[in-house]
Amino acid sequence: MRISDLSRQAGVSIPTIKFYLRERLLPPGTATGRNQAAYGEVHLRRLELIKALTQIGQLELTTVRQLLAAIEDHQQPLPQLYELVDQAHPVPEPAPGSSTEHLPGARSDVDTLLDDLGWQVGKQAPARERLTAVIATLRRLGCDCRMEFFNDYAAAAETQAVKELDLLPADGVGADRAAAVVRSVLLAAAMAALRRMAQEHYVSSRFGLVADHTGPRSA
Question: Are strands 30-33 and 36-38 parallel, antiparallel or unpaired?
């Protein structure tokens, strides 16, 4: 297909496609003449992948580039691929001048939580640091945040992680690496969306309030 056809089918502008080609986020097409090339399903799927990771996954293009390179590098084992996905969302840095007095206690409590769960998680894992930052910040703001609160969250996360990985071959050999990355990123967004909808439902049923969703929606 021509670049105009690719643009129409993918819903991505021609200038954006040309930018992706220059930045090697998109593989070159097959030359058909001077300054002309043909594109196929590989390019269409790659564009859909980029759109999913940037629009729904809210990832920056620099991060998407790294993930795409890791997807194509079949010498890189799946655990490292998932580690890159975890690193895609940076660990929040304390705001200048903010108190860090709650960080040591939060870090110790997260260590205990993971030990009790029996989860093997690296000491420097970004997700571990993010949870530590969340707990420390909640405590700094005076929010009730006992560690028992996170047991149900952990149980739900464990169920989701196992179901997700069960979609891969048992030994990981021949796994669709792009699908693995997309599921990891988008299912995290799905869990956040489900939590928000559950919250809206129970806010309405408990307090008799109905959310107003009549405002403008993004396309």
Answer: antiparallel
1-56, what's its fold?
A: Multidrug-efflux Transporter Regulator; Chain: A; Domain 2 (1.10.1660)
Residues contacting 33, CB < 8 A, separation 6+? none
Which pLDDT does position 219 carry in this prediction? 47
**Of the candidates 195, 184, 157, which has an alpha carbon nearest to the alpha carbon of residue 59?**
184
Token output for 192: 């956040």
Q: What is the DSSP string of 63-102?
A: HHHHHHHHHH-TTS-HHHHHHHHHHTSPPPPPPTT---TT
Contacts 24+ apart (CB under 8 A), 29-37: 29/3, 36/2, 37/3
pLDDT digits (tens, 9 = 90+) for 62-74: 999 999 999 999 9
Domain ranges of the chain: 1-56, 58-89+167-207, 90-151
Closest by CA to 177, choosing from 51, 87, 63, 49, is 49
The 10s digit of each residue's pLDDT in 116-147 is: 999 999 999 999 999 999 999 999 899 987 89
Q: What share of the chain is helix, strand, coil (3-state, %, to 5)?
A: 60, 5, 35
